[in-house]
Amino acid sequence: MRITIVAICACLIISAIWAPCIQTWNGYPKGEGTYSFLNNICHQYPTRCFWVTDRPVGLCSRCISGYLGLVIAATVIPMKRKYTARLAVGIGLVLCAIMDPLIQLNIVYESTNGIRLLTGGVGGIGVFNIINPRYSKPLIGGDRT
């Protein structure tokens, strides 16, 4: 399961970064297919995206860091505790991650891409704790016994 999560999330991150590069190197209509595909999972507001080659990447900063959080968690976090404990940690992390967007909805506040990067990564790690119900070793740095 860890390898599948890493593969899918890494492909999404790479394609999001690749889309503006393709447009820069090959001109405007190139890369639009990637943006259109990623539009199904992210709003892609340019002001909430990181920029590569003077163009916004295909995922907003919160989404790209959420997928990066999933990759990091699947790669290095061991799952030694019981699932109920990991579920509680995961829910807590996801709740922390959704505080920023909820605050933005209720008061006049605009978060920065740095805050979105942090909350997305925390949310991605939390989601991994929730969706991985069984014990598993990390892909890197597993038990050395």
**Largest sheet, order of strands side by side?**
1-2
Helix content: 55-70%
Specify the structural class: mainly alpha
Q: Work out the radius of gyration.
A: 17 Å
Largest sheet: 2 strands, antiparallel
Descriptive keywords:
145 residues, 5 helices, 63% helix
SSE order and pairing:
Elements: H1 2-26, H2 32-38, E1 49-52, E2 55-60, H3 61-76, H4 83-106, H5 113-131
Antiparallel strand pairs: 1-2
Helix pairs in contact: 1-2, 1-3, 3-5, 4-5
Description:
The protein has 145 residues and is mainly α. It has one domain. 63% of the residues lie in helices and 7% in strands. It contains five helices and two strands; from the N terminus they run H-H-E-E-H-H-H. Strands 1-2 form a two-stranded antiparallel ribbon. Strand 1 and strand 2 form a beta hairpin. The longest helix has 25 residues.
Quick recap:
This protein has 5 helices and 2 strands, in the order ααββααα.
